[in-house]
Amino acid sequence: MTELVDIHRAYRDDLLKHGLLISMGVDGLYGRSGLFEKVVEGINAAFSKVGDADAPEVMRFPPGIGKWQLEQSGYLKSSPQLVGTIHSFNGGDADHRAMLETLEKGGDWTANQRTTQVALAPAACYGVYPAVGARGRMGEQGALVDCYTYCFRHEPSLDPARMQMFRQREHVRLGSEAQALAFRKTWMERGQAIITSFGLPFEVDVANDPFFGRTGRLLAASQREESLKFELLVPIHAKEHPTACCSFNYHRDLFGRAWGIETAAGTPAHTACVGFGVERITLALFKHHGFAVEKWPEKVRGVLGL
Ligand code: ZN
Fold first, then answer.
1. For residue 247, how far is its CA from the centre of ligand 1 (angstroms)?
2. So what's the pLDDT on residue 293?
3. CATH code, residues 2-66+78-83+122-304
């Protein structure tokens, strides 16, 4: 029987061989070719074509968030194993010489690196909540934000669909409970229509985030029980191990409380977000339609502008 890890490696090596991904010598960290990026742009354009009708406010953040934002978000409590922080050299001449000597000997030259004020973004929407919270009370309409950025999760893998640095395109809704839930319902339908237009098979299922440890197991169970997270899964490697390509999340008032985001009524806002994993969808497209884009179904190429 072929192990899943061998299937992962085989597809990863195929992508490298065809030049779609560029090796950087670290599992889960890759460059992308021009063709790969053209497909990514097509996916983003298809997302915009549907989502722009709602006239969302556009926010673009760098792949880093403030360390204080990471602390205040609660992410360290739920998922410490995925966190990335940025460290930098912080010494004098003697420290520098010692560092280079250690490097020369093949030792751990990072021992004297110190944390900076920057952490890596775990999800595209993490920049949005503090920004909206800082504005003061929202109007009756709440807020709707379109965001897109590179995210980091510390989970090195041979699976090309589990990258350490990848992009999420999201819409985030902030408002009343009813507004957040209506938004998620609409996007669950839209998400399925968009993936159908890409000619990909999928299923939608209730899901949980990869929370850490014993408390994490309880968090995951209640997240499922309350149907807070749904995923759209596409089989990339094997039918019985489909990959989450889109997620539809309802956070109740978790972020509303964490960031002091207030509804017009003065209560903590409820929030929801829909996220498209653009690399995963791209990998699914190459898997299902082949490496020769000119041979993809004409309808799919039309949707993606290829
Ligand atoms: Zn999100």
1. 8
2. 97
3. 3.30.930.10
